[in-house]
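Quick one:
INPUT:
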């Protein structure tokens, strides 16, 4: 099965944020897993993004996971 990847810009668009915000999250060691190719190229596996989003799904603002 062929793996699907998102660029930093594609993930920023998906999450309605900026590329810079994603860079800060990566630098802090937070956020979804990513793949770094060379000095600048960063890719995210769609499967990792979906998993990360699912782990943060909530039913209330108290932070209790589903």
């Amino acid at each position: 099965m062929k793996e699907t990847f998102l660029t930093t810009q594609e993930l920023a668009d998906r999450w309605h944020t900026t590329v810079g915000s994603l860079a800060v999250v990566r630098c802090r060691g937070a956020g979804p897993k990513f793949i770094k190719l060379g000095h600048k190229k960063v890719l995210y596996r769609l499967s990792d993004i979906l998993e990360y989003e699912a782990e943060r799904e909530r039913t209330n603002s108290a932070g209790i996971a589903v």
